[in-house]
Automatic annotation (TrEMBL):
Keywords on record: Flavoprotein, Oxidoreductase
Protein name, entry field: Thioredoxin reductase
The keyword Zinc appears for this protein: no
Organism this protein belongs to: Cuniculiplasma divulgatum
Pfam family, one: Pyr_redox_2
A GO molecular-function annotation: oxidoreductase activity
Domain (FAD/NAD(P)-binding) ranges: 3-286
Origin: domain of life: Archaea
InterPro entries: FAD/NAD-bd_sf (IPR036188), FAD/NAD-binding_dom (IPR023753), Ferredoxin-NADP_redctase_2 (IPR050097)
């Protein structure tokens, strides 16, 4: 599928970039594993202008709704390779292959894979990396959280309000995480911790229906569940960009003040870049800068004039929508 601009990443930087790109008439696609990224771990953001208090999930959802309102398309996929051919960028994901004139890297830090057998097979079919996003799909069903620390505990606490039973694997013989969250999780009758256990294989037919757990003593136990929520934290997954764009020793993408990378036509924003102060509002601002630069790059390729700002009035279904 061919697009004017593709944004890799569905958190604040990527969604902000998509809003600006779509508003300027660019055929825009966001490719992401989830919506909100690390922001989903924040239940109470108190320093985002315009909101005294808002959860990362709610803020990201508002960003996504606005992007979709202007025509942004979404693909829940994971990009594996990025190449350039004939002045076009070719992106190969797990599900599809994509092509674009300009590329915006805004994937920040991505969910860490579990690494168990069956994980790839059942991604999107019972294997999830976002408990808040997908939890409601498994209301009154048995689910399992695979992870450690506060990531896993936060998922367990939320899923405990919707699922019938929540299993949480722990490699050690104790629960890791903050004491207050541990106490709260232990207080829930439908949350059960499985000590000295890890997921060996995710099983199912068309969708997940069980997990095979490997115990520390070598024994194996199979538990019927309808979903596996992977909560292993987040990492900067920039390996696919090695040799494609310049990165620093922390594997962050190096950009200039306009969001440009070392490769013409490729821009970046947010936590994946070398810009300090990893904050939601900063990522959103960087996303808009990267988008304007990408738009101008596409315009230049097509012999069109440049865009200096976005004061454009867009009448959507005859409803007045004006950006500030």
């Amino acid at each position: 599928m061919k697009y004017d601009i593709i944004v890799i990443g569905g958190a604040f930087a990527g969604l902000s970039a998509a809003i600006y790109s779509s508003r300027q008439g660019m055929k825009t696609l966001v490719v992401t594993k989830d919506i909100g990224g690390q922001g989903l771990l924040t239940t109470d953001i108190q320093n985002y202008p315009g909101f005294e208090s808002i959860s990362g999930f709610d803020l990201a959802s508002k960003f996504q709704a606005q992007a979709q309102m202007y025509g942004t398309e979404f693909s829940y996929d994971e990009i594996r390779t990025v190449t350039e051919s004939d002045n076009q960028f070719i992106l190969k994901g797990v599900e599809e292959q994509y092509e674009c004139d300009a590329l915006i890297l805004a994937f920040g830090k991505t969910p860490r894979d579990l690494g168990s057998k069956g994980e790839e097979k059942y991604k999107g079919r019972g294997v999830s990396y976002c408990s808040i996003c997908d939890g409601p799909l498994y209301k009154n069903k048995d689910v399992l959280v695979a992870g450690a620390g506060d990531h896993a505990l936060q998922a367990a606490l939320y899923l405990g309000t919707v699922a019938s039973k929540v299993y949480v694997t722990q490699k050690a013989n104790r629960i890791s995480g903050s004491e207050d969250m541990i106490a709260e999780a232990r207080s829930l009758e439908n949350v059960k911790f499985l000590y000295e256990s890890e997921v060996d294989e995710i099983l199912g037919d068309k969708t997940v229906n069980a997990v095979s757990l490997k115990k520390k003593d070598g024994s194996v136990e199979q538990i019927p569940v309808k979903a596996v929520f992977v909560e292993m934290g987040y990492i900067a997954k920039t390996g696919m960009l090695k040799g494609f764009v310049e990165m620093n020793k922390e594997n962050e993408v190096i950009i200039d003040m306009n969001g440009k990378t070392s490769r013409e036509g490729v821009f970046a924003a947010g936590d994946v870049t070398n810009i300090p102060y990893k904050q939601a509002v900063i990522s959103a601002g960087q996303g808009s800068v990267a988008a304007l630069s990408a738009i101008n790059y596409v315009h230049k390729k097509r012999g069109m004039g440049s865009v200096r700002s976005d004061w454009k009035f867009v009448d959507l279904n005859k409803k007045s929508k004006i950006s500030l």
